[in-house]
Amino acid sequence: LGIEKNLLGLKEFYFQLCEQRRQARLSVFNMFPRQYLYKKHHVFGDCQAQFMATTHITDADFRECGPDYQMGSELCLMTISGDGNVTTEVLFDCPTGVLRDPCLPFDGAKISFSMRKNDVDDDFHLYIMNVDGTNQTELILNSKTQTKHPLNDCRSIQ
Questions:
Q1: Three-state SS at 109
Q2: Which one of 28, 29, 115, 118 has the largest count of C-beta atoms within 10 Å of its C-beta?
Q3: β-bridge mates for residue 94, sequence order
Q4: What is the CA radius of gyration of the chain?
Q5: What are the strands of the beta sheet with 98-103, ordered from one edge?
Q6: DSSP 147
């Protein structure tokens, strides 16, 4: 019984040392941001090279056609707490399309991104939304739709 009590005490002491070591290792991250905006999507497989070739054309008629290609993207916010725990929040889910090019300005008020809602009759359009994922607004509509550009000039997006 005495040996078991000593072993239990050593185990608790070991876990305390582990926690101290963890805090020391995590302290280096205090100089880095605690939140990261990122997008995730299905692996594009054998069509990645063709997809990347159209990154500068938001109204490209190119359609991905690899056998393992599938639509579906999410715009996410990852938060790292002081104790090293990581949480992920999905800000915007696009299960039938592709999101790309997310951008967060210094004031952190809005997120801009491009999105193709589907792979049948849509192409990439530019959107903004609040950082909490609400109020998605399309900024530039494709010329094929013959709709009016909602911005009055080429100033930065506010």
A1: coil
A2: 115
A3: 73
A4: 23
A5: 98-103, 110-116, 125-130, 137-140
A6: P
